[in-house]
Amino acid sequence: METEYRWLHSSIFYNRRQWNSLLAGGIAPFCSAAAREGRLKRFIVHFNEQRGQNVRVAFEVKKTFERPFLARLSDYFTNYLGLHPSSPPEQILPIRNFIGDFPVNKVFYHLYDLQRSCLNPACEEALQEFRHKFSDAMIIALAEEVIEPDLIETFFLYAGLTLLASFLDLSPPGCAADLRARCLQNLGQHDLHRIERLMMEFSNVLHEITADIREGTDSGTALGWLNNWRDACRNLTELSSSLDKPFHIDLFMLAMESLASQTNIPISRSRILMWSMVRETLDFHIGD
C-alpha cells in the first residue's frame, strides 16, 4: 500500500558560522509549529558544504498537505532570511571548483535525496526515526555556540559513544568482537598509520565522555540533550538486537554513518573516529 507521507528536501544556504542561530531561531520554531498543527510527521537535519555552506532539512509531510506545506515553508524562510541574513562565507583560495556556489540566504529544493538502507521496512522506519531524534539533539546541543569542527567532533563522539554503550548493553554474545572486526575492515590502508596518533589525541577525551554517559551527568556538552538521546539509542538497539547478528551489526553501522553524514564529518575521518571509539571501549570488554 502506498504511504501517505512524502519526504520534501530543502537546502538553506547560510554561513556555517551562523548555523547555530539558523537551527535555534529558524528551523526549530518552524518544525515545532508544523508538528503541532499535524502537518509534519518528523524532520531530518544534515550539515552540508556542497555548492556552498548549507543546512539540509528533509520534512516528512502528509501528501495531502504537500503543496500548502511547501508554500508555507517558502514564505517562512523567505521572511526569516530577509530578517536574519547571514554574512557571505569567507572565500578559500585557490578556488578549485569551476561551478559556482549557490548564493547565501536562499532556499533550494530537491538537490539531494535521503540515504536509504537495504534493510527491511521496519528497520528503515527505525533508522529514519533515529535520524530525526539525532536532529532534535543537534538543535539542542549546538544552538548556543558557533559550529566549529572541534565542537562537531566532540558532539559526534558523545552521540556515537552513547549509541555504542546501548549496543554493548543489549547485544547478544559475540557481537562486540564482530563489530570490532567490521570497523577495522572498513578502514583503508592509508588510515592505518593515523590511528595510533589519533588514539593518543582522543584517549583522555573518550574516557571523559564515556564517564559522562555512564554516570548520567548533565555537565558540559551533555547538558540538556543526552538523556533523550540515550533513549533514542536504546530504542534502535532493542529493535536491531532482535535481528540476526549480521543485520544487527549492519543497522548499528548505518546508524553511525548517519551521525557522521548529518554532522558533515568526512567519511574517512568518521571511520577513524568510529574505530577509535570502538577500540577504546571494546578493549575493556573483550581485550586485545
Provide structural commentary.
With 288 residues, this protein is α+β, with helices and mostly antiparallel strands. It is 60% helix and 11% strand. The chain contains 9 helices and 4 strands, in the order βαββαβααααααα. Strands 2-3-1-4 form a 4-stranded antiparallel sheet. β2 and β3 (54-62) form a beta hairpin. α3 crosses α4. It is globular. The N and C termini lie far apart (49 Å). The model is unreliable at 218-222 (pLDDT under 50).
Fold blueprint:
Blueprint: E1 5-13, H1 19-36, E2 40-48, E3 54-62, H2 66-83, E4 106-109, H3 121-142, H4 149-170, H5 175-186, H6 189-215, H7 226-240, H8 245-262, H9 267-286
Antiparallel strand pairs: 1-3, 1-4, 2-3
Helix pairs in contact: 1-3, 3-4, 3-7, 3-8, 4-6, 4-7, 4-8, 4-9, 5-9, 6-9, 8-9
In short:
This protein has 288 residues and is of the alpha+beta class.
**End-to-end gap:** 49 Å
Mean pLDDT: 84
Overall shape: it is: globular
Profile the largest sheet: 4 strands, antiparallel
Strand order of the largest sheet: 2-3-1-4
Roughly what percent helix? 55-70%
**Radius of gyration, CA atoms, in whole angstroms:** 20 Å
Order of helices and strands: EHEEHEHHHHHHH
Judged by helices, strands and strand pairing, the structural class is: alpha+beta
Beta-sheet strand percentage?
5-15%
Number of helices: 9
Low-confidence stretches: 218-222
Instruction: Compute the number of structural domains.
Output: 2
Q: Say how many strands there are.
A: 4
